[in-house]
Design goal:
13 helices, 10-stranded mixed beta sheet, SBP_5, single chain, ABC transporter substrate-binding protein, alpha+beta, about 500 residues
């Protein structure tokens, strides 16, 4: 298996977001009264982390709450995936695209009170580069040298230009930890962020408290309680009974209950969530492009999006928020008759396939697929499994026909340029285009190369992208500044306030 972290990170964090889409789109920030600096913000989430060691444990559930709140990197990203400074006050990139120079902000301290210097940054990044067991290792593979010429400056030199490098530093690969710290990160922390870990009631909630000595603008609330509620109906009930100030991943079928109550504002946010129907390209009959194309043509994507509740159709591996996006709807329009023809040409007028899906995704998507496939002579058996079983059978052993998960991480097109990834897709031309896109010094050129590669992947029918997810968030009127976009992968709460 490749050490690339993107695939697994995306998958694990989307327990409920796969079905959580639609509602009215009202801007956040309809707070009433003055913000209460001593307030506790109760946020309903779906998937709880198994532990808090973000350095050694993959999963969007970790990145969602820990990055920017507890741990920080030199740079971070906004909800619309734009790169911005964080621990670094400024940075520059050399004309040849090889040298990145960062200047640290003043007054940064870890939660134990010790000051942060370039020594901590260098040791953190060097550890990720050297240790294959650390998350983000692959993202730093092209780093030639990491240096701290003085306590306030970090210089990173690449062996070759990489358009994705700076963005990779906004993720787990770029997080900064104290040099020599022995904190057991599985259930404790020592970050630099605006919140500290207070308590973790496993199976129930995680509580953060404001770090009063934070180097930047202090958090707007004194405490955040993440309440983990894996059942959609239970989440709505908790919101209606006043237990929550914010409910994320609202099921669109339940959203009317929150709207009609008059207690909540609902927003619909964009994401990079790709609802991916994976084909095992290395296993018959999915190794036949005619079979893969037939399956895509059999799916009524517009009807599927309507059944899910919102989001938008997506016919390629790159969503709108990522570089290289192109509308590829013409590649696989709904055409059941052509699907039947292709299956007949491939010798499969009748075909039995199995869909392996983590059981937290519900039944909406499988039901649509079973119905659509049946119309073209494909009998689909749905194998709903616990997530650990999915990881073992599908992700690790590649023992599957079709699979469905929500890949949430931005800029993860590289999975299709990795023949060892669980898709089993191996196209040297795609791999070269992707490598050239990363090496391009000009962003526009890089994006054009990515678009070319993505079109090839879609034309190869390496997978089907059922939809690009959206996410519904409900919050009480006193909440202001709560993020709307990309909250399944990143939830920066520093600027959130709660009024009386």
């Amino acid at each position: 298996m490749s050490r690339r972290s993107t695939g697994l990170v995306l998958i694990t964090g989307l327990a409920a977001a796969a079905l959580a889409l639609s509602a009215c789109s009202t801007p956040s920030g309809a707070g009433t009264g003055e913000p209460d600096a001593g307030a506790t913000l109760n946020v309903g989430l779906v998937l709880e982390p198994t532990n808090l060691d973000i350095r050694r444990t993959s999963g969007a559930a970790l990145e969602q709450i820990l990055v920017d709140n507890i741990y920080e990197g030199l740079v971070t990203r906004t909800p619309d995936n734009q790169i911005t400074e964080r621990l670094a006050s400024e940075y520059s990139v050399s004309e040849d695209g090889l040298t990145y120079t960062f200047t640290l902000n003043e007054g940064i301290t870890f939660h134990n009170g010790d000051p942060l210097t370039s020594v901590d940054v260098v040791s953190s990044l060097q550890a990720v580069k050297d240790d294959e067991s650390l998350q983000g290792h692959a993202e730093l593979a092209g780093v030639a040298q990491i240096a701290g010429p003085d306590l306030d400056t970090v210089v990173i030199t690449l062996s070759a230009p990489n358009q994705n490098f700076l963005f990779s530093l906004t993720g787990v690969a770029g997080l900064v930890f104290q040099n020599g710290d022995t904190t057991d990160l599985k259930d404790a922390e020592n970050g630099t962020g605006p919140f500290t870990l207070d308590t973790w009631r496993k199976g129930s909630s995680i509580t953060f408290t404001r770090y009063e000595d934070y180097w930047g603008e202090k958090a707007g609330v004194a405490e955040v309680v993440f309440d983990y509620i894996p059942d959609f109906t239970a989440g709505v009930n908790a919101a209606l009974d006043g237990s929550l100030d914010v409910l994320t991943a609202v099921d669109p079928n339940l959203a009317p209950q929150l709207e009609k109550s008059g207690q909540f504002t609902l927003t619909t946010g964009r994401t990079t969530d790709k609802a991916t129907l994976a084909f095992n390209n290395a296993k018959p009959p999915l190794d036949d492009v005619r079979v893969r194309e037939a399956l895509r043509l059999a799916i009524d994507h517009d009807a599927l999006v309507e059944a899910v509740g919102a989001g938008q159709t997506l016919y390629g591996p790159i969503p709108e928020l990522d570089p290289g996006y192109e509308d590829l709807s013409s590649v696989a329009p709904h055409d059941p008759e052509k699907a039947k023809q292709l299956l007949a040409e491939a010798g499969h007028e009748k075909l039995d396939l199995t869909l392996t899906i983590p059981n937290f995704y519900g039944t909406t998507v499988p039901q649509v697929l079973v119905s659509d496939f049946k119309k073209v002579g494909v009998d689909l058996t749905v194998n709903s499994v616990e997530f650990p079983a999915w990881l073992e059978d599908v992700y690790k052993n590649h023992d599957y026909d079709l699979s469905f998960v929500l890949h949430v991480e931005p800029r993860d097109f590289g999975n299709f340029a990795n023949p060892e990834y669980y898709f089993g897709y191996n196209n040297p031309e795609v791999q070269k285009l992707y490598a050239d896109a990363l090496a391009a010094l000009d962003e526009k050129t890089s994006n054009e190369l990515l678009a070319q590669a993505a079109r090839l992947v879609s034309e190869d029918h390496a997978a089907d992208w059922l939809y690009n997810g959206a996410t519904i968030t409900a919050f009480v009127p006193g909440v202001s500044g709560f993020p709307e976009d990309s909250i399944n992968s990143r939830l920066d709460l520093r600027g959130v306030t709660l009024a009386d």
